[in-house]
Amino acid sequence: MFIGRNQELKKLNEMYLSDKFEFAIIYGRRRVGKTTLIREFIKDKKAIYFVAREADGSVNLTGFSNDVYFVTAKELAQNAFFSDWEKAFDYIYQISKENRIVLAIDEYPSLAGGFSSISSILQAHIDSQFKDGRLFLILCGSSMSFMENQVLGYKSPLYGRRTAQFKIMPFGFFESMLFFDKSVASDKSEASDKSGASNKPEVFEKTDKAVIYGITGGIPEYLSKIDASKPIGDNIVELFLTASGSLYEEPSNLLKQELREPATYNGIIEAIAGGATRLSEIATKCGIESNKCAKYLKSLISLGIIKKEFPVTEMSSKKSIYLLDDMMFRFWYRFVFPNMSGIASGLGRAVYKHTVIENLPAYMGLVFEEICKQYMIEEAKRETLPFFISKIGRWWGGNPKKKRQEEIDILAYHKDSALFGECKWTNAQVDVDVLCDLEAQSELFPYKKKWFWLFAKTGFTDRLTGEAEKREDVRLVKFEDMVE
Predict the structure, then answer these.
(1) 8 A C-beta contact, residue 18 and residue 206
(2) How far apart are CA 350 and CA 335, in angstroms?
(3) Which end of the chain is more exposed for a tag (fewer CB within 10 A), N or C?
(4) Residue 301 located in a structural domain
């Protein structure tokens, strides 16, 4: 069953209905669901779908010929081949003059890597032929740097020809929950029945779904591997903490696929996971020069693995830090990487019992902050916030009065209005002292109008609830209510 991506699918179908030349570029990190989106879009349309291989132009041209003829002249498939790419695109153009047809080339960076002239050839055909026909061209790729620089970049022959671009991002928490919606679970159960697997009801609590988001980062392929009939602990052990688990070596494999020096990048990620957040700290820990380290960090940012973050009220600052942005990487380097010897020896369940369970609540702190931020953005879309927010994020900085560093989980603001948020993923109920601390922190800012939102996994004490009921500027949000 196809899940999510409603906006992207709607836009693609609107473009298709234009019945004129359209050129969409779809890109995003591996496993994020680009191919699934394309296949869902073309399933009821006349479409040629070609997946390029890491091979030279002639090998890909042969495969392209087969895929083209299979759709347009099935009797010629496997028997007729285009002599060159110009002839192939000439053939496509002749068909598109009279008929609406989609041509989707997946893993385009692989095609261009084996035949560097392909972008120039495509550009020439777009300018001289395709623009006058009814072709819907889609180029798709997982190499983020290639797609942004060599396809979308102003130096690319294809620059300015696209009519739309889609950077496919991981699902947010609320979209991720759709994988475990009852209707989806029903479809999965039917699939399990057909495959002979046991049909068991879902066992996840709402908090389990937050943990699932925290270990998969909303990547559709990882979400699809979660077995809703098994407890969350069994899923973690089987996927991450077993040598044969499908996610046991996933970060290492992704680095090898995307980067030329995986060992160096692995060291940088390990340093950040270990608490080094500033450029100088990371470079020192890895034993490389700061300017070289900055280039490596830039590559990891382009892949969505790490992020460079500033306090939300500052556009650029010496306070900038580097954090792991990919939650699956964050979980893996926190719990799998340090325990690989034990896991390889078959001690994965013991690692879960003695390491993961104990430290998972602390790990979930940042995950819960992200979920709360997404909740606020959803509230903003529904126009239920007390004011329009122009920026939202974390804040940290010095407190000159108390001479200490302060951190605010969520700060959203616009002009003279600000909303301060505190997020607590603990089993204990949140009390009045948390509100008092947040109010004290808000005094560091000159905003005239201030609101205070407290988010809690478990709930709030009667004392805090009573205080909030007396005030219009305080809102208490329980996690369970967020996911209703």
Answers:
(1) no
(2) 12
(3) C
(4) no
